[in-house]
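Key idea: predict the complex, not the pieces.
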Amino acid sequence: MNSKDVNLMRRAAGLGSGLVLALMLLGFSCGQGRRFSHRQHLEQQGLDCKDCHAGSGDGLRAGAPDPKQCLNCHEEASQYEALAQKLAPQWPRLRALPADGKFSHQKHQDAGVECAKCHGDMKQSRKVTAANLPTEADCLKCHREMGVGAGCAVCHQTVSKTSPPPDHARSWNRLHGAASQEPVRGGRCSRCHERNHCTTCHQVAKPQDHTNTWSNFGHGVAAGVDRSRCSTCHRSDFCIQCHQQSVPVSHQAGWGAPLQRHCQQCHLLAPVSNCSVCHSGNFRHVMAPPRPNSPPHTTPTDCRACHHGFLLPHPDNGDNCRSCHK
Amino acid sequence: MTAAVKKAATLCSVVVLVGIVMWIPAPAAAQDSGASLHGTAEAGYRFRTDSEHQDSDFIERLSLQGFFPWKTLGEGADVGFVFSGQLQEDVDGKARRDRFDPFRDLADTYDQPTVGWIYLAYAELTRPGPFQLLRAGRQDLLDLLPIPFDGGLVTVQPSTKVDLNLTAFGGIPTNLFERDRRSGDAVGGAYLDWRPGRTLSFRVGYLSLRDRVELLDGAEETLDENLFILQGAWFPRPGDVLISRLTFRNAELRDATVRASHRDEDHHLNLSAYYTGQYLTREAEPLTVDPFAILLGELRPYNLGGIVVYKGIGERLGVEGGAVVRGLSGDNTENLYNLSFQRYLVTLYLNKVPLARSQFSAGLDWWMAEENHFETQSAHAEYDQRFGSHGLFRAGTAYAIYQVDEWTGREQEHAQTYFADLGIPAGKKLLFLLSYNFEDSTLRQVDTLRARVRYEF
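Result:
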C-alpha cells in the first residue's frame, strides 16, 4: 500500500467518522423544537391538559392552544395579544397524523388511555418537539395490546390493501428500496405486504429490462457499468455456471475447430481481455510444444522462413508463433 | 417427449393439490382468535420462439405465510411460518449444451429438465417470554447486508427502559444457483439497534462470512469476509430521512454511504440524494457478498453521487429526473468492469388520463462511461390501466441500444420490445394472466407468450 492509498484511506476514514458524528450531533440538536415548559405549567402551576388544549378532552384534534387561552392566567399577556396572534401561525406545527388519518381524543379518553401513554411524561417536558407525539409504531403496539384492531382502516380514511399510502405513488418504484431499509420505517412494510413480498419481486420476477437481448448481450454491458445493481438480486455463482456451460453468441459458426476463427480475435486484432474471463490458463495454449532450445530458435527469427513447406493448421498463418510456442 | 409429459403432469398435479388445500378456508375459531393464513399459488405456461429455436416451460410458484397467537408463551406471543418457492419444468427438453441456445438462462442451465428453488422457508416465534423474536430456517437478513442463509436468528430486548434490541444469527449462506453446497460455508454475526428518541436510530453490527467457491480453473478456495458496520438514521419529520453508513473490513474503512430524502406530499415533491464511496479494492469475496468478483475481477475504489427528483404538477402530471455520476478514485485506470460513468434519466408521468386508475409514462435513460468504452441508452413508454378489484391492462414499448467500444471500434445491439399484459379477475381471489412480448433486435426476433392462473388467499 503506497502513501497515496494511506492518505486516501485516512481522508475517507475521517470523512466517514465525521459524517456519523455530524449526524448524531445534528439529530440531537435539531430535535429540540420550540421552547415551552410544559413542566412549569403542569408540575408547578398544577394545570391540566384540558386547561390549555381545549380539544384534548372531547375533540378530534387537540392542537396548539389559541393564544387567547393564555390570557386566562397571564394578565400581562393582554399587552402582547396582537404580537401573540401574529406569532401563533409560527408555532411548531407538529402533526402525528398522516394526511388521511382519523383520530378522536374522546374515544381514547373514554377507553381510559392516559395522556402520558401517547405523549410521554409531559410534566418533565421543557420544549415542544416531535418526541411528544406518538409514532405509528406506538399506535399499533397499543392497539394490538388492547385488542382494538390494527388494520389500516382503523386509523386511515383511504389507505387499505387496495388503496396504498400516498407515498407509494409515482416514483415509489425507485424509492421503495431505500425506504424499506430505513430502520424506523422499514417495519411498516409488513403491515400490508406479506413477508415474502420482497422475494417475490426481487428473486422470482425479473426486472422489465431483462429481455432476451439482455440475457445474450446486454447484461455484460450493464455489469461493466454498475455491477452493484446486479447484486440486488444475484448472490450466487451463477455467472460462472452460465459462462462455463453456455458459450457467448460469437462462439459459433467456425469459432472452434476446424476453422479456429477464434484465434484471429486474439492474435490478429488488438489484445483483448474478454477471453480471460472464461479462459484463464487455457489447457491447449499451455500444452503447445515449446520451441527447440537451439539456434536459430533461440533468437528472434521469422518462423515462416523455414516452416513453409507444409500447411500450418493455424488461421493466423504463423504470424504469432511465439505467443504459444514459448 | 413422453417422459417430459409425465413429469409435467406430475408437477401440475402437485400444484393443483396444493391449490385445493389452500382453498379450504381456515376454521372460524382460528380466525376469531387472530390467526392468519395468506399466500399466493400460481401455475403458468411459457412459450418462447425465434426463427430457429423454441422453448416451452411450466412454471409454478407458491408463497405462503401463517401466524397464530400462542398466549401460553406470553402476552402478544405468536407462532408463524413463511414459505416462498418456485418450480420450473422444461417441457420440450430440446436445449443443447454443446451450442449456443438463446433461451438458456439461469433457470435451466444445470443439466436437468426440472429445477426448483426455495427462497424462504422459516418458522418463527414472536415475543416468546424474554425474547422478541426466534426464527429458524431459510431466511433473508437485510439489516447488515443482504444475506440469505439457512440457520437461526434470535432478538432480545435487554432492557425495557431503553429502546435497545440485540440480534444474533448464524447458519450456512444460501447460494441458490450453486451446484453443490460446499462444506465450510458459514455466516454469523450480531447487531445492536438503539433508538435514543423517536427520530433517531443507530445500528452497530458485525458480520463474518465464509464461502467455499469453485474458481474458473475448477480449483476450490475458501473466501473470508469480516465486516464491522455502523449506521445512523435521523427522521426529523415524516417524509424526511438522513442515513449514514460505514463499513469496515479488517479495521479498515471499506465504504461509506450517505443518503438523504425529502418527501412533501402536499407539493407532490420527492427529492433524494446520495453519496457512496468505496475506499478499498474489493477482490475475490464470498459469493454471498459479491458474486461477480471471480468472473469480473476486482472492484476498484470509486466515488458515486446521485440525485433524483420527482415533481408533480397537480395530481395528473409529473416529471422525474435525475443524474448519477461515478468516478474512479486515485490513479485507478478504467477497464471493462471498473468504469467511471454518468447516468441521466428523465420520465414523464400522466396520471388518470384519459381514464381514472390509469397511468401513462414515457422516459429516457442514458448511461455513458468515460472515454466512451460503454454506452447504453433506452427509451420506454407504457400505459397501465387498472380495473375491478385487481384487474390490469398494460401495454408498452421499449427501445434499448447497447454499445460496446472495445477493439473493433463499435459493437452495437439494438432491441425494440413491445409488450402487453392482461389480468382478468375471476372473483376476489382468482386471477387469469395473459401476456405477450415481441422483441426485435439485431440478434434475432423473439416471441414470448405466457398464460398463468393465480390464486390469492
